[in-house]
Structure to design on (436 residues):
């Protein structure tokens, strides 16, 4: 017998509420020229006004903003508001209804999906961890991934394999990233598929090289491969989306995958420690961390487990840094106000400008493809005779903040975004020129 929870009980449980650096980059000395409340009026059509919503040090060209993303004024103001609210009254609850629900609705509008398809997480890594630690695999099913993914995917599927005994195979999608081809990448994944492959684990934009995968084409190829397979045997396309999310405008229908995990604290410039896991095949996995949603409480109190997995059940419960979680809404709204297509255009125009400038330098080897169809905002390269970490340090002296990739071999990495200007791109090119 389930008994509805009253509001006080829900509040009491928190239900209604509810880096380690993977790259190196010297910290700039921030000069806080504006405050959350003192930021100039926001005109989303004016890139200078967009940039003015951030308190980045204007002395530096910021090409590592995606690493530990700064928040724009509306996000900072929301964090401050919720922090003050919680400090004044620990029963503080914004909006009069479940904040998680309205965040999921906002996120759903942003990605063109349904709120019930979205689990709220703390990071990309947590999303992938929930996915790969929760997927149910039957005997003989296997996992396919690629050589180019980040630790979160590789370790996630290794843990999946340890738990289930499934075999994991890796395919190589390109030898020279600068010459990656969409057709060849899809073909390599197709060739790696086995008759019982249940999980295809890939990354939308490789943080090792800046290569963007043609996720839609991979999904179309898989749809063909899945034809005639039972639902429980269908190969599921699972995507680490973090370096595409907030940089590339595609929604979930455009991607056509089954699961997509992303932090909202990188290219979306949302609050740190926030993210989403979107999925359309939730019953393929079991929740890993007990949720704090209504269904979890009902199951707990009635002693009867839920009939099926839902995104809400898969959303980890426990108390959060609520002032950050609740400010996710403002991050989605900020980018929506600018326009997702405009954000993508700007990000890619700046990346194209940077690549063109770097390509002209004889001591620079670009790793990222020229084509905007095969890249996003990441631009990776090597400098003849200079270690990437040394290049980062010397660029910092020239007021350019770049980072290194946490891969072997490591590369020098730039990220163009809504916080960078064309002038800063030109200055970065000049600074790299000076590294010869
Ligand atoms: C491809 C990729 N996935 C995931 C992460 C980690 O993201 P998060 O901090 O949201 O877990 C990184 C590191 O920045 C990354 O490069």
């Amino acid at each position: 017998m389930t008994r509805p929870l009253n509001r006080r009980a829900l509040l009491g449980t928190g239900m209604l509420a509810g880096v380690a650096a993977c790259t190196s980059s010297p910290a700039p000395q921030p000069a806080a020229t504006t405050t959350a409340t003192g930021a100039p009026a926001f005109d989303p059509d004016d890139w200078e006004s967009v940039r003015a919503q951030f308190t980045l040090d204007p002395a530096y060209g910021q090409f590592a903003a995606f690493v530990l993303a700064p928040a724009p004024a509306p996000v900072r103001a929301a964090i401050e508001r919720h922090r003050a609210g919680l400090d004044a009254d620990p029963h503080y609850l914004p909006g009069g209804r479940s904040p998680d629900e309205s965040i999921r609705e906002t996120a759903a509008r942003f990605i063109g999906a349904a709120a019930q398809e979205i689990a709220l997480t703390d990071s990309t890594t947590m999303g992938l961890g929930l996915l790969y630690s929760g997927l149910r695999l039957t005997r003989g099913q296997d996992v396919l991934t690629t050589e180019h993914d980040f630790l979160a995917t590789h370790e996630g599927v290794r843990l999946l394999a340890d738990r289930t005994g499934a075999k994991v195979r890796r395919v190589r999608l390109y030898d020279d990233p600068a010459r990656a081809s969409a057709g060849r990448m899809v073909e390599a994944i197709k060739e790696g598929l086995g008759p019982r492959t249940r999980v295809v684990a890939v990354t939308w934009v490789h943080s090792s090289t800046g290569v963007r995968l043609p996720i839609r084409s991979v999904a179309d190829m898989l749809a063909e491969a899945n034809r005639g397979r039972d639902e429980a045997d269908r190969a599921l396309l699972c995507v680490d989306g973090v370096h595409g999310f907030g940089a590339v405008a595609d929604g979930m229908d455009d991607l056509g995958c089954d699961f997509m995990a992303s932090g909202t604290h990188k290219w979306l410039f949302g609050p740190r420690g926030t993210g989403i896991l979107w999925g359309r095949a939730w019953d393929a996995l079991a929740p890993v961390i007990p949720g704090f949603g209504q269904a979890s409480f009902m199951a707990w109190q009635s002693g009867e487990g839920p009939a099926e997995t839902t995104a809400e059940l898969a959303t980890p419960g426990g108390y959060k840094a609520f002032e950050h979680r609740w400010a996710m809404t403002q991050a989605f709204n900020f980018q929506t106000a600018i326009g997702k297509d405009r954000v993508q255009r700007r990000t890619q125009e700046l990346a194209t400008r940077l690549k063109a400038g770097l390509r002209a330098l004889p001591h620079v080897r670009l790793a990222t493809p020229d084509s905007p169809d095969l890249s996003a905002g990441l631009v990776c390269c090597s400098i003849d005779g200079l270690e990437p970490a040394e290049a980062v340090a010397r660029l910092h002296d020239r007021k350019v903040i770049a980072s290194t990739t946490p891969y072997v071999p490591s590369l020098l990495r730039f990220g163009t975004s809504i916080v960078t200007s064309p002038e800063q791109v030109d200055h970065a090119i000049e600074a790299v020129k000076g590294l010869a």
